[in-house]
Amino acid sequence: MKPATMGISDSKQADLRSKIPSVLNNSVVVFSTNYLPMARINIRRAISLLLSGRAEPLDLQDTKLVWVLHSPSVAVEVPHHIRLKTTTAERLWKLPSVSRRELLRRDGHRCQYCGSAKQLTIDHVIPRSKGGTHTWDNVTIACETCNHKKGDKYLNETSMVLRSKPKAPMHPTVAFAEQFWQSREPN
Ligand SMILES: [Zn+2]
Signal sequence span per UniProt (predicted)? Predict the structure, then answer.
């Protein structure tokens, strides 16, 4: 029986050892001074922001979640959400220019007419020959067959339907905020 007991004790010790690093693997959502969720940051970075006074804990009414980090002498409570106390300069972000790679990502690597994932090309919704521009709101991923079928026609001259309205990629902060609030919506 002795080896078994040893085994349990060993795994318990391993469990204790792994506890602190696993807490440190968590991430904290950081909000701007005007309560816009901006990004997920490493818990260590959050502690540094809190200890230096650059951020404060943020309670989102329905949650009061904290992780407790123990050192030999103190226990530090780290909230799941923190808010910056000073305004940071808005990170500069330039709308990326239209590229095949970005377009494929936006359209989920699928033809936006038939859903095919094969032989993907770029289609101009308003044909270039009719003054259509090479801009985010006028380009879509289309398979070769659909692109050929649509040809030089306006969309309303065909029976084809777009699965998604072409639009420019969102500012990363706005995209994060949208995703954050959606993930908190009750099911
Ligand atoms: Zn297609």
Answer: none
**What structural domains and CATH numbers belong to the chain?**
20-86 (no CATH), 100-157 (1.10.30.50)
Q: In angstroms, what is the span from residue 152 Cα to ligand 1's centroid?
A: 16
- CA of 111 from ligand 1 middle (Å) equals 5
107/93 Cα distance (integer angstroms): 21
User: 119 CA distance to ligand 1 centroid (A)?
Assistant: 9
Q: What is the mean pLDDT of residues 160-178?
A: 86
* Ligand 1 center–CA 99 separation, angstroms: 19
For residue 163, CA distances in Å to 80, 141, 178 come to 37, 11, 21
* Ligand 1 geometric centre to CA of 122 (Å): 11
Q: What is the average pLDDT value for the chain, to the nearest integer?
A: 83
Sequential DSSP letters for 78-99:
EESEEEESSPPPPPP--PPPP-
